[in-house]
Write a structure and sequence with these properties.
Subcellular location: Cytoplasm
Number of strands: 12
Number of helices: 7
Oligomer: single chain
Order of helices and strands: EHEEEEEEEEHHEHEHEHH
Domain VLRF1: 62-202
Number of domains: 2
Helix content: 25-40%
Keywords: ANK repeat, Coiled coil, Cytoplasm, Endonuclease, Hydrolase, Nuclease, Repeat
InterPro entries: ANKZ1/VMS1, VLRF1/Vms1
Protein name: VLRF1 domain-containing protein
Strand content: 15-25%
């Protein structure tokens, strides 16, 4: 079971958990608290909003800067965000999928090689695809201090991201990396915004037998009457308010915005 909470209620719940007599462990890679149970039950997890830093139990007064990077075969959407606001974004598309088989060129190379002209064209576009991604990332990291990097990318494509001729401005072990725990549809601008909305919500993950503990924690935090920000329900006033903060047009220079 899971329950989603906006940032302010998540902050209240975090304060309540830290004050309670509950042993916790923080996983920085998942930006998640594990609430440990002495009775041997399955642990309860609380994934924090990306814009809510830990161990601080209140909303941060400083701005949280982060990059969201979504990559699938032939499609990429990435953007630079400050405190939940998208200041710049870019969508890349590339001819990487073999039309008849519906298989990416990278997977095809593992079995058939790259002798045919079409294969060489797709391979060339694959290399350029990742170079373009890293060029945009380099621009973001050069212009701004980046606190977190939220990424969704298959294991098949990860080596190509890091071995590109244009270097990635972070390595695989960078402590700022955060793998987005959510299925991502084909990366486009709207999907990028949807991923950002997801990352700005806290998420309680628990088993049915832990419902009583969850209800007690929410009550102690004064959140009993707060509606569940369900992942499927994007048409909420909260989500609408966030959408109003986005720029519809992309800025040309990733380092110069108002």
């Amino acid at each position: 079971m899971n329950r989603f909470l906006p940032q302010e209620p998540s902050s209240k719940l975090l304060r309540t958990i830290r004050k309670a007599d509950i042993r916790t462990e923080y996983d920085p890679e998942k930006h998640r608290l594990t609430l440990l149970n002495e009775a041997g039950q399955e642990p309860l997890y609380f994934r924090l909003p990306l814009t809510l830093p830990f161990p601080y139990a209140t909303q941060a007064t400083e701005s949280i800067h982060y990059v969201i990077l979504l990559i699938q075969s032939g499609n990429c959407a990435l953007g630079y965000f400050e405190n939940g606001r998208c200041l710049n974004h870019k969508v890349f598309r590339s001819y990487m999928v073999r039309k008849k088989q519906g298989k990416s060129q990278i997977k095809y190379l593992k079995t058939k090689g790259k002798s045919r002209a079409g294969s060489r064209v797709r391979l060339g576009e694959t290399m350029e695809f990742f170079e373009n991604i890293n060029e945009r990332l380099q621009a973001y990291f050069k212009a701004h201090e980046v606190h977190r990097i939220a990424i969704s990318c298959s294991k098949t494509l990860i080596p190509y991201l890091y071995s590109s001729k244009v270097a990635t401005p972070f390595d695989k072990q960078d402590p700022r990396l955060f793998r987005i725990p959510k299925h991502i549809h084909t990366p486009i601008y709207e999907v990028l915004l949807d991923a950002n909305r997801f990352l700005q919500r806290g998420e309680l993950i628990y088993e049915e037998q832990q419902q009583e503990l969850v209800d007690r924690l929410l009550a102690d935090a004064g959140l009993s009457g707060v509606a569940d920000e369900g992942d499927a329900n994007e048409a909420t006033a909260w989500a609408d308010e966030l959408d109003e903060a986005y720029f519809e047009e992309e800025e040309d220079d990733p380092g110069e915005w108002d």
